Amino acid sequence: MTATAELFGPGSRPVRIGPFSAAVEHRAVVVTAVLLLAAAAVAWWNMISGSAMLGASEVIDSLLGRADDGAARVVLEWRAPRVVFTLLGGAALALAGAVFQSQTRNPLGSPDIIGFSTGAYTGALLVAAAGFTGLWATPVGAVLGGLTTGAAVYLLAWKRGVSGLRIIIVGIGVSIFLGSFNTYLLTVLSLEAAMSVATWGAGSVNDIAWVHVLPLLVIIAAALPVMLIHARDMRLMEMGDDAAAGLGIRLERVRMVQFVCGILLVSVVTAAAGPIAFIALVAPQLALRLTGASSVQLIPAAAMGAVLLTASDAIARTEMIPVSLPVGVVTLVLGGAYLVWLLVTMGRSRKGVS
Amino acid sequence: MSVQIAQHELQAAQRLSSPGRRRLLVILIGASALAALCWSSLFIGSGDISAHHVSETLTRWIAGDLPPESRSTTELLILERRVPRTLLAVLVGAALGAAGVLMQAMTRNPLADPGLLGVNAGAYTAVVLGSTTLGTTIGGAHVWLAMTGALVVGVAVYIIGTTGPMGASPAKLVLTGVAIAALLTGISFAITLTMPHVFDRVRFWSAGSLQGRGFDELGAVLPFILAGTALGLLLPRALNALSLGDDAAVALGARPGLTRITGLAAVTLLCGAATAAAGPLSFIGLMVPHALRILVGPDHRWLIPLSLLAAPILVLTADVLARVVVSAELPAGVVTAFLGAPVLIWLTRRKAVKNL
Questions:
Q1: CA nearest B93: which of B229, B220, B1, B261?
Q2: Closest chain A C-alpha to B325 CA, distance in angstroms
Q3: With an 8 Å Cβ cutoff, are B183 and A168 in contact?
Q4: Do A347 and B342 lie within an 8 Å CB cutoff?
Q5: Which residues of chain A lie closer than 8 angstroms to B128, CB-CB?
Q6: Residue from the list B178, B194, B328 with its beta carbon closest to the beta carbon of A322
Q7: Ranges of H-type helices in chain B
Q8: Residue B335: closest C-alpha in chain A
Q9: Do B330 and A165 touch (CB under 8 A)?
Q10: pLDDT for A253-276, tens place per residue?
């Protein structure tokens, strides 16, 4: 046993790249790799299945540019963006969930529970109602809506500090309020806009195209490195504000950076696919249980989110169901069941409330 | 000295009589507001019907001068749409308001509400499931289904939300309700989206709306709401004792177990019937008891009867607003959520959120 191995404990080893260093846990690496493989497998399944009856060989041909126009269009213009979006979007939601759960020190402090998704949706609707169109109009509206809602929930829950449960209940209230406001906005919009927006309201990836993937990619590329740099400070802050401050962490700056990144990620997914429930809540918690870590970790959570959203999409579009369900309905059922289970077991083991 | 004592006594007497006067005032204002709202609910609507026409039709109808076969379209609209809709709003409101008071008293939880605790979602899902598997249609048998759903989910939420080392904190109960409601909403969403015939049966009813309800729906739920209200009106004294805690209640001669079972039966009847009639409406049961507690104090002998007066005011306001705010009608449930969510936030912010 070398000195460093003892310092980092069994099952982990230090990795240094230039000035940065981190403890890499073997189990987390293995879990992440398995999850990524699973995500890739489900994604491939989503690529080769569908109502257009294009199997693996046609898909490979299309990807290599050898297929005819019709097949290439289905594969490259319809299926591929959807698959890429579910992979990236699931990861983005899970990252946001991990950050919020860590900061509120409560698994229920996820952005979907405390109303940010609904707020982002409100922003997108307001932009549509005001008549703005264009590639960036909806994402920008959603991001503004998400940020405003985040600020509103914090201010409303603030009372000499933000307590975990108060912010959740206030968030539920804000979420219900905005939800009814969204329904009102839908009736104000023209029938055509309202119809397309209504399926979107349940969280649907049916109409995803490359124009939706691009903003998501940009935001992830910008937010992920920032979040990873702050991840260690974030984990120390879970020990309590006083202890973290004593270790020299600038609490408010870390908190602000992580929140803004999380809200950006949620908002950009919501802008394209509508509010997809519960991925942000469930993915970090499941990843936490698989890795056996002491607190939520960003990368395994992101891999888990990708698996969950692609798998939900696979369920939503199976042949057994005659119509294409919005993926949000699938995540609502799975996530709701998980949340009930979480509440049942929450008291029993202390670890559940990490 | 004696003059001072007399003054004290006089002030004490005034203080004693002041809640009484206040209650009288609340009753008077409430009753006149309800009457005014019922009246305007008959006059305001999407059809362009003149006030004169409405009052004429109503007077002739009440005088028995309007046989069913000789009614014009407008008269039909007034008598078979607006009149039952208004009555139903009053009935549903009374049911949800009373259910809210009962739930808050029984769980000793200020955040209890049939909508927040998932009871309405349970009733809704039961109807959707029944409509899928048994082929029941809206009207008649679905009242029983709604009641079963309300009962099962109410008990489940209560058990999950109050057991475990975290104890029965108001927040945990609400979270359990929201979680189960989300799960159930997802399930019924999935069913209605995949089966168009089920969707067709429940869609007019699902958003928490009073639109298009007739005397049939009114008749189907009236007995249940009356029975539930009667049960609820038996309970005020026992609930007052219960609000001191179970031990104190037993010491005072109340039987908490019996009270809870009776209360649960009343809540099931009221919520099941109200949801069966109007679809899931949330927050009525949350707002009304708190408003009344501020106005008349925590005595359930006043709270329960007055909730029967105050909650219909809220539902009628929501329903009338839902008709006038947008050109296409908004479901009343949307308006109640819009009005009710700020109340939830306000209650959460209050320091005394754990005490009732």
A1: B229
A2: 9
A3: no
A4: no
A5: none
A6: B194
A7: 2-43, 51-62, 73-77, 83-107, 119-133, 142-162, 170-194, 196-206, 215-233, 236-242, 246-251, 256-278, 284-296, 300-324, 332-349
A8: A180
A9: no
A10: 888 888 889 988 988 898 888 888
User: Which among B187, B207, B338 is the nearest to A333, CB-wise?
Assistant: B187
The pLDDT assigned to B352 comes to: 46
One DSSP character per residue, A79-100 reads IHHHHHHHHHHHHHHHHHHHHH
Fold classification of A35-115+194-318+325-344 is: ABC transporter involved in vitamin B12 uptake, BtuC (1.10.3470)
Structure ipTM over 0.85, yes or no: no
How much is the pLDDT for A1? 39
CB pairs under 8 A between A and B: 127
Rounded to a whole number, what is the distance in Å from the CA of A134 to chain B's nearest CA? 27
Phi, psi of B168 (to 5 degrees): -95, 60
Q: Decide if B149 contacts B126 (C-beta within 8 A).
A: yes
Q: What is the pLDDT of residues B140-179, one digit of tens each?
A: 677 888 888 988 998 888 888 777 655 556 677 777 888 8
Q: What CATH number matches the domain at B88-354, 2.40.160.60, 3.40.50.720, 1.10.730.10, 1.10.3470.10? A: 1.10.3470.10
Comparing CA positions, the residue from B172, B183, B278 lying closest to residue B225 is B278
Residues 96..115 of A with a Cβ closer than 8 Å to B: which?
108, 113
Band (A35; pLDDT cuts 50, 70, 90): very high
pLDDT, greater one: B18 or A180:
A180
Domain range summary for chain A, segments of one domain joined by + = 35-115+194-318+325-344
Residue type, A113: I
